């Protein structure tokens, strides 16, 4: 009877060892994973965010939150509408918008950003762009207090750009009247219709458009119309 009990005990021990040979190390592995998870989750409470990334690119979101700034709480949202309830957070210091993966048109996003960023002091807003397009980049810079960053630059350079102080001199921004004019032109109205809607003499509207062409590096009104058309298209269409 004792011999049978010893054989049974040996068989059970061997079986457990075969199924889980490193069972004694499992608690250490779990502790290590838990510690790593805590490090990746940073030290700030769950309700506090200091950076916000607007992007539908999951690879960019992962790289941003896991490799760019370990030590800052970064929240990722697919759109500005989804992030609207957190845009007013007092702890938010940086807003990064991926202009290449938007779910709406660039013009609509710029209009929403103008309304928010011009009303919130201390918030630095960055626009991520991929392809060099001087007229479009000039439009982005003039649309509001935005800083442009190359989307595909190395991580170290991107981190340095984000940590750099704001430039002392920024290009002139569109005035409220100029933005209203551009908005109506982007909606397909003619310049005469736009001037009438804004209560502006036609020759004054022509002068403003000519000034805008010079600032954006465009030669004709047709080029401005084409630029506005590209800005009002959904990025992924």
UniProtKB/TrEMBL annotation:
| InterPro entries tied to this protein | Sig_transdc_resp-reg_C-effctor (IPR016032), Tscrpt_reg_LuxR_C (IPR000792), WH-like_DNA-bd_sf (IPR036388)
GO MF terms here are:
DNA binding
Coiled-coil regions listed in the entry: none
**Protein name from the UniProt record:** HTH luxR-type domain-containing protein
Please tell me whether the keyword DNA-binding is annotated for this protein.
Answer: yes
Keywords, comma-separated and alphabetical: DNA-binding
Q: Where does the HTH luxR-type domain start and stop, copy by copy? A: 171-228
Identify the domain of life.
Bacteria
Q: What is the organism lineage in this UniProt record?
A: Bacteria, Pseudomonadati, Pseudomonadota, Gammaproteobacteria, Enterobacterales
> Which GO biological process annotations does it have?
regulation of DNA-templated transcription
Listed Gene3D superfamilies: Winged helix-like DNA-binding domain superfamily/Winged helix DNA-binding domain (1.10.10.10)
Q: Does the keyword DNA-binding apply?
A: yes
């Amino acid at each position: 009877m004792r011999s049978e009990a010893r054989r049974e005990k040996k068989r059970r021990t061997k079986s457990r060892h075969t199924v889980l040979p490193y069972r004694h190390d499992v608690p250490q592995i779990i502790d290590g994973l838990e510690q790593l998870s805590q490090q990746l989750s940073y030290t700030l409470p769950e309700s506090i965010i200091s950076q916000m990334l607007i992007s539908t690119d999951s690879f960019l979101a992962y790289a941003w939150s896991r490799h760019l700034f370990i030590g800052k709480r970064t929240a990722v949202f697919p759109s500005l509408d989804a992030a609207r309830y957190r845009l007013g957070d007092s702890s938010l210091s940086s807003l990064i918008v991926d202009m290449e993966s938007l779910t709406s048109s660039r013009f609509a996003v710029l209009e929403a950003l103008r309304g928010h960023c011009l009303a919130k002091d201390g918030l630095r807003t960055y626009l991520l762009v991929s392809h060099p397009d001087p007229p479009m980049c000039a439009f982005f810079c003039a649309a509001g207090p935005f800083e442009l960053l190359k989307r595909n630059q190395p991580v170290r350079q991107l981190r340095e750009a984000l940590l750099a102080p704001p430039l002392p001199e920024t290009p002139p921004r569109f005035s409220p009247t100029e933005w209203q004019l551009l908005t109506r032109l982007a909606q397909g109205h003619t310049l005469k219709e736009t001037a009438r809607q804004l209560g502006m003499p036609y020759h004054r509207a022509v002068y403003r458009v000519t000034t805008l062409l010079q600032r954006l590096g465009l030669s004709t009104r047709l080029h401005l119309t084409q630029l506005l058309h590209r800005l009002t298209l959904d990025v992924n269409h």
